[in-house]
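Q: I have two molecules that I believe assemble together. Could you output structure tokens for the complex as a whole instead of separate predictions?
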Amino acid sequence: MKRILIWVLIILLAAAALISCIRKDIPEDTGFINIKNQDSEISEHPQPNKNITLNGVDYLQSQAPVGIFGGEMVISTIGEGPKTFNPCNTKDATSATMAGLMYDGLLTTDSYTGEVIPQLAKSFEIKGNNYIINLRHGIKWTDGEPITADDVIYTYEDIVFKGLGNTAAKDAMTIRGKLPELKKTDDYTVQFTTPEPFAPFLRQLTYPIVPKHIYKKYSDKGDSVFSAFMNPNTPPNKIVSNGAFKLKEYVAAQRVVFVKNPDYYKINTENQKLPYLDKLVYLIVGDTNNEILKFEAKETDMLGLRGSNVARYKIKENNSDYKIYNLGADTGTLFLVINLNNQKNSDGKWNVEPKKQKWFQNRDFRAAVDWAIDREGMVKNIAQGVAKPLYTAESLNSIYLNKYIKGHPQDKNVSKESLKKAGFELKNGILYDSSGNRVEFDLYTNAGALERESIGVMIKQDLEDLGMKVNFKPIEFNSLVNKLSNTNDWDMAIMGLTGSPLEPHDGKNVWTSKGSLHLFNMGSGYNQKSIYPWEKELDEIFEEGALKLSFKDRKPLYDRYQTIIYNEKPIIYLYSPLRITAIRKKFKNIYPAPLSGLVHNLDEIYIEEKK
Amino acid sequence: MEFIKFIFKRILQTIPLLVIVSLISFFIIRLSPIDPLAELRLNPSISQETLDKEVRRLNLDKPIFIQYVSWAKSFVKGDLGYTSSGEKVSTKLKERIPNTLLLTTVVILMTWSAGIPIGILAAYKKESAFDRILTILSSIGMAIPSFFFAILMLIFAVKTGWFPVGGLTSYNFNEMNFAGKIIDIVRHIALPAIVLFTVSLSGLQRQMRANMLEVLDSDYIKFARAKGLNESEVVFKHALRNAVNPMITLLGFEFAGLLSGAALTEYVFQYPGLGRLILEAVMKSDINLVMASLMMGTIMLIAGNLLADILLMITDPRIRNRG
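A: Yes, here they are, computed for all two components at once.
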């Protein structure tokens, strides 16, 4: 009797403990409703920068309010930290961000409008196929040498056109196998001539310009020497750059410290040299949990928020020292991709079993899958409301977004109809194809990505309601990529890719039939029997779109490509998370821009003095 | 002479061991379906040309056996090769080894200088209140998983603000004076050290207690006591010397764990040590880095055992004579 009493007591205690845990873990849902209702809040941003000449130096004048000099900002970056400081050799986001701080290009992208505007160049003119770039007089590298047309010519001719480092820029500048020509008019004028009109070309002039007198020694020795040049262990005082910040210190797996470039060519309206901040610190952290802890411990000043965290931080915002900004939909896309491959691998085996090929290649089957997916449910349950459903191949903040594609809610009856139309038969809740095979396939995603795993579970349930059998298999990220891009032996996968909100041509590796990321029908461009008519049309659209110069001429083409993807559904888009970022209130001159983020104007941000 | 011959024999024995370990691990890593270029492949702006260039640079276009031979050749020459991101493996390891050594040596010093006396005392005062409390504490210490304890410590650091959250140095470390630098490192290292200390202390002092109990129970101790020796002489001169033998073998293993033993804790605390580096390397199948660290681990294990054997020969005349 006594023993039973003790057990009852223990169980009661455990239950009480569990209940209190549960209560603690469910955030009150007042928070995210706020965030959802306010559309991306864009405060008024300052006037565009002006050019101003003082004592023979062509400065760029920021029109943002004048701030206070000094102070530092600490930001975290997830992963292993930068792999190189060579701006011509960056292949990952962290290295690119850091090289971007240190090196400016001739032109840059306006953070608010997405237009191409002068940066290192003072101005530019376009005359037919000729692009004339006027450089600033009197601006210098961090070692005091002047920046001239020679550096520009060197950067393009010796690095980009020779394919040193990351060859993405060379690819993007190659027009029907030909590269543009460069001509030095005088020390401060350069002219590019493209073989034919080529729309994405202007944006390629944002490529970072590097100092000829430092880089030439290494670029002359070929790619292997050049790739190792400026690795993270290079002594910071040997790095000569031209950006707003220069490298001060790199400590492996801990941090990268930048200090302001005292010779930067940007000034404020009182003609004082920017940037305001003395120091910019990137802490290298291994994962999101650590990033959050560091923000909570006030070791970092900025934090990107996702899902359930948004509500928690929003509730605490009023009594805290940070402010939360909503930057609108992410440029990344999450999608379900279906393998339309009908080729054999080198061992003579089918990449996809023939019976499955019949299903996947049937448009009605793909439509059935699409209609069964509950995007609203995903937004609500997986992204905690901090996302928007996505139906298009271009991301929601893209300037080329096809606004006529409205999407549709989940409707399993439509799915069932289209399965019936495609000859499938539902018997006792099990779906069979016209030859009597049970519909069963694998669905992959990368293990460890909680968001994608949850999506997988939801999709599996919805498709099983249609009578399909889905084997959901989260596998290691690298193995998944190997399947998708090399071995092609998969059925369906949940993946994500980053996109460019400004230039749809950047997606050509995904959409053109010979692209290296043409996931849904890899290599179809090399085999006439594998390519679909609509894939041929996509090829044409991407070729034509690049040759048209004005936005007005290009928009209908890229609208058409999104319509094709939406109708043919080789890739079924799911949702786009919203980018919510918290930053300490002490930072001023914060002008969030959906295209480029919260701190795109690091040279203008300053710290308000403590009251 | 006997001594040198013994050491020489042991070193010769390691060669086939190293070959076997390297063969097995190389093939397992390479045959796993991990693509070292996965991240690049998924980046829409990376061209096929860049990818092909990377494949050639990493030798991925050659058969596995040839890859192994070329790796082994340069390894024998002392060249550890390059990581998949193009940095020298040796510099990468050099960056991290001192950090890990700092943490593990501090922990080993702390555990051994606390564990041995506590173990002796617990054995001596067997069944006393002190011993019982210690038993409970060490059960807790052994039962709690180190990563979980590490997370609890991190939460503690965030809530109190007394300790920094992970890392080894503050970002303004270079502007500090010497004393400031030392305090900064101590503050950073305190929490991971406490975690590792607690976990290994419980095991160590239990082990010491058990050894000591066994010896204290033996006939020759009874005889020593009967002879009328005072207690301290019985314990330290007769019991301790015999009880410490198994501990020396343990010390050999501790030596092997110097570079790899703290991996999990390092990861949770974002400590810039080898553990984090190697874990990330395995995930990406960064073959040269993984192989270098595996070889290092093997060599450390062999060296640790050798060290323990030598120490045993010094302390234990029975082994020496058999030698």
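A: One point stands out. Chain B is about 75% helix and 0% strand.
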